[in-house]
Amino acid sequence: MLLKNRQYSGAYYLSGYVIECALKACIAKQTHKFDFPDKKNVLDSYTHDLEKLVKVAKLDKELKSLLNDPNFSVRWLEIKDWSEESRYQKHDRQKALNIYSAITDPTHGVLQWLQQHW
Question: Which of 3, 15, 34, 50 is the most exposed place for a label (fewest CB within 10 A)?
C-alpha cells in the first residue's frame, strides 16, 4: 500500500521490519513451552541488527551457504544493512522497490527462506 501511494521512505522502513520480525520468530521458535531461555540469547535478540539476529537464530551457517547462490546473495545484500534508523532517512522509489523485491521474491526472497525456520 505504501509503495502504491508513493510513500517510499515508509515502505523501505517497514520492509526491513518484516525481516527483523521474521528473524525474531525464528528465535522464538527455539524456546519451547516451560523452557527457561538462555539469558545471553534473550539479550542478544534485543537488537535491530539483522546480521546479529541471524546469528541468534542460529541461521548464520545456512546464510553463509546461501550466499553462494547469486540469486539469493543479491537479495540479502539489499536488506542486510537495513536499520531502524532508516525511519529518519529519505528513500527513493527504487530503493523501496529493491528492498521489497528482495524480501518478497517467491523463489529467492529472504522472507521465503526465513519462513522455513519459524
Answer: 34
Place of cell 541471524: 54
pTM, entire model: 0.93
DSSP 106: T
| Ramachandran class of 58: left when φ > 0, alpha when ψ lies in -120 to 50, beta otherwise | left
Alpha-carbon gap, residue 117 to 98, rounded angstroms: 24
* Helices 70-79 & 93-104 angle (0-180, nearest 10): 130
How far, in Å, CA of 102 to CA of 48, rounded?
18
Query: For 54-65, what is each residue's pLDDT tens digit?
Result: 999 999 999 999
